[in-house]
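G., the chain you wanted modeled:
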Amino acid sequence: MNDQGRFRDAALAAGFPDDEVDRFLGRLRLSIRLTAGADGVPAGHAGGTPRLPVDEGLPFVLSVDCAAVPRIEGLPAAGSLLFYLDHEKDLLAAAEGDQSYARVVYVPSGVEIDDPVSSLRATIVADLADDHQDDEDEDEGDELLALAGEFWPSGGGFPTAYIGGHVDDQVLTSIAEQTLAGREKAGEITVPISGWYSAVAREKQRLAGEWLTLAAFPTDDEFYSGSFVIRYDDLAAGRFDKALSVTTFSE
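Predicted structure as tokens:
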């Protein structure tokens, strides 16, 4: 039985109705929280310069040892994932479809890769989709989320990154806007200005079921956040070159 199955049994034993638990699990994804603290299992490194035969030529962010981290949906069972990002250049370039300043590299097991600055430890946390439930459902979700917090405690320390989980709303908006703009440019669709926001909302709803977060992290500049997202089918096939970077900026 997987973690969600054990949680379902625990929720039913606590008296939550069957249909309520199923609705909650439909919105739940598990995410790996990486910190430099003492809690969790050793799972990767942040900073430093990876020792690899190929120089990626981009700032290195972090590595994840897939065999060491707790199991979540779609993540490889072995090997390492390395994330590179030049966040300032990526912010503008990625909006134009240029992914030159961000990269995900998969390295098979047995290859020494890290010259680490700091080690990262992993814990599983519950990630709940924000799908605009009504007030009654939201109250139910809060109670189950509290139970999920006991089932998957987040631990201490400031998060260095999250692996897996739902795509952030701001990131999903950016993907939806880029998708619609690309289809308009290709002559596939025409979206009137007055209908742009509703078209983006519909596109976000469609994309939410296709994409998940591969990694999300703050950068060394407090105004930028980095995010790599990937389609489920690309993740299952190990097509990490298909991961999409979305760097966001907040004033």
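The mean pLDDT is 86.

Shout if anything looks off.
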